[in-house]
């Protein structure tokens, strides 16, 4: 009888190491909160003003490059031939376009798409001579991606490389030789 009492006291005092404790599965809500917080890509600032549409596009894409996403023009609105608003979306926004059904002899192979139907939306508007940005839906539904994964950032990298002078092959330089 003494043995049972000692064992009972010993088991009450013993602390179970964390590796031996039962893991309680997280609830679905906790998992969603964790996923959304880890996918939180900061939207661009809406406090700045810009002189041109190209300046605002360059600024939001520089911010997006740092955050791991890119923005593209979804559509523009014009009055008297001049653009006064540009609707922007994440480059992963949208869905794969369905094509007309083809006969089996003309059928193409199935390919994948990078589109995730990302809900991010913003509008660049011309107001009183300056461009302002208004973020309508700031959330993304995908992880951050390196700049090389976005076409707009790859194009920017190619255009920023200086071209050699005419008649000189690429990769050669006369500086310091």
Automatic annotation (TrEMBL):
Residues 1-35 have a biased composition (Acidic residues). GO terms for cellular component: mitochondrion. It comes from the Eukaryota. Residues 1-47, 94-113, 157-177 are annotated as: Disordered. GO terms for molecular function: methylmalonate-semialdehyde dehydrogenase (acylating, NAD) activity. GO terms for biological process: L-valine catabolic process; thymine catabolic process. This is FAR1 domain-containing protein. It comes from Lasallia pustulata.
């Amino acid at each position: 009888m003494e043995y049972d009492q000692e064992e009972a006291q010993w088991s009450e005092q013993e602390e179970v190491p964390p590796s031996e404790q039962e893991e309680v599965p997280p609830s679905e809500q906790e998992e969603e909160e964790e996923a959304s917080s880890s996918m939180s890509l900061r939207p661009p600032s809406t406090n700045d003003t810009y002189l041109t549409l190209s300046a605002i596009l360059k600024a939001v894409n520089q911010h997006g490059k740092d955050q791991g996403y890119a923005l593209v023009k979804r559509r523009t609105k014009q009055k008297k031939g001049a653009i006064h608003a540009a609707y922007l979306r994440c480059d992963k926004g949208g869905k794969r376009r369905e094509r007309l059904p083809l006969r089996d002899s003309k059928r193409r192979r199935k390919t994948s798409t990078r589109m995730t139907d990302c809900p991010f939306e913003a509008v660049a508007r011309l107001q009183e001579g300056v461009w302002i940005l208004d973020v309508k839906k700031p959330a993304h539904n995908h992880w951050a991606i390196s700049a090389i994964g976005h076409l707009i950032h790859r194009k920017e990298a190619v255009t920023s490389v200086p071209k050699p002078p005419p008649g000189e092959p690429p990769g050669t330089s006369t500086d310091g030789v």
